[in-house]
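Exercise: predict the fold of this chain.
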Amino acid sequence: MTIVVNLDVMLAKRKMRLNELGDAIGISVQNLSVLKTGKARAIRFSTLSAICKVLECQPADILEYTPGEDEPLED
């Protein structure tokens, strides 16, 4: 499965910088950068909730599922 992280899109829509978001939710810019670039292997619900609260959005605005070529479709 491929999960696309659209954090940069939401930050642009809210005219907010990554360091501002980090300060608002108490997470380092480095950790947010890992998430933003799609290199994160997991995200805590509490982190996702804090991001959504600050950006006034839904989780689906940040995370998007796209079927990967290596993923077989099951019936």
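Check your answer against the key: DSSP finds five helices and two strands in the chain.
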